[in-house]
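Notes, p. 3: input format for complexes.
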Amino acid sequence: MLIGVIADDFTGASDIANTLAKGLPGQGGLRTVQYLGVPKEAAARNVEAGVIALKSRSISTELAVEQSLDAMHWLLEQGCQQIVFKYCSTFDSTPGGNIGPVGEALATALGVSGVVACPAFPGAGRTVYQGHLFVNDRLLNESGLQNHPLNPMTDADIRRWLRLQTAGEVGHVGIDAVRRGPAKIGSALRQCAEERRVLVIVDAITDEDLVTIGRAVADDRLITGGSGIAIGLPGNFIERGLAKGTGAVDFSVDGPEAILAGSCSGATRGQVERHSMLHPSLPIDVAGVMDGSVKAADLTSFLLSHTGNAPLVYSSSTPEEVQASQARFGREKVAAALDDLFATTAQELVKSGIRRLVVAGGETSGAVASALGYNALTIGREIDPGVPALLAEGERPVALALKSGNFGAPDFFKKALQRLAGR
Ligand SMILES: Nc1ncnc2c1ncn2[C@@H]1O[C@H](COP(=O)(O)OP(=O)(O)OP(=O)(O)O)[C@@H](O)[C@H]1O
Ligand SMILES: O=C(O)[C@@H](O)C(=O)CO
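Output follows (423 residues plus LCNOYBR7):
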């Protein structure tokens, strides 16, 4: 294993696994596997990039640091030369959140400083300019992310947001330095290290900027960012003859299908609206879930009775509805109840023979993937930017798409089911 990634949620892990497996056009990517939590056993020998999916974005800082360090140790034991800490391209975290503390703890453990922190993912509209994060043409705090159910993002200046979480000062390398090339980026990062700035927000607006940053950090032990930061990394190893460039695995799994959407993000709500016009779809009554009158069995029987027609169940709601439920039942309680519901539903679905499963939302996907107990998922072809097809191998293979809330085209659900079946 050459590159080891510690991802703070499940869909984020799939996202960066997709980038590593895809690589750059004409160059190829790395043979990549996504692990659900820190594996107990050694990785298979042909794995070139290992991505450990944690569920550490919204847990206590202490636990997030502990789990991330465990993951780092396992990855180093597998031979990794480079560790990447993957967080959300919209920098999802609270002011007391985990990006800063985990980044600093990994840097201390690896004895490094002046470490890149860059959430840019231009393919999904996320760019960093003058230390500010944009989603398409909007500042982060005006992009809809200010209404996120778990971590409302209310400041687009991610230097300032990160500084709320870190022990030390945060550095910044602007786009001018990035455009002057790898050597300039390297010297700017070294300067930050000399000033004892452990984490350094680096501007990036295009994929080319990210490739340039990738070249600048070819020999760095630690890199942090969104999936975009990995665009240039496979090439460093392929060019040196250390990786073969074989990348994503082609597979197809046909059979009964289901879609579960727990994300309330704008893109998912659009996908739900579009899909439910033409396919059997069941909205989840959140109050019913909270009083115990809506159960997993209700969701399962709906989905199983409509297989063949791409059935969907969803809790996705508008920001106003989410706020009303949270005010009535408590933010954590309602999230836990829904995550549990989706997890149990997924277990029952797979037991009943579902072979293709599409899940929308990072927390929701985490709950589902943990409940299904898959240890390792092979990375297949990209469905939409940031979302690969995943394969849980075994006697009865199950193909999955774990979609970040804000990812995917409006017709994502249908497209994902087709891609999983190799169509
Ligand atoms: N109707 C609802 N009311 C309140 N909370 C909800 C509702 N539907 C879902 N939730 C909770 O909101 C959270 C949504 O987070 P999730 O990570 O799944 O989606 P997301 O944040 O859009 O995706 P990502 O993290 O990939 O960007 C989950 O914990 C889920 O249980
Ligand atoms: O980086 C992103 O936007 C996604 O991979 C993600 O982490 C959303 O949960």
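The chain has a mean pLDDT of 96.
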